[in-house]
Amino acid sequence: MAHSRRTLQLDAGWDITLDGTGRIALARGDLATAQNVANEARLFTDDAYFIQDKGIPHFVVGLGGRVRASVLRSYLRRAALQVPDVREVLSVTIVDFDPKTRRLVGDIIFTSVEGVNNGTIRTYF
Question: pTM (2 decimals)?
Answer without folding.
Answer: 0.77
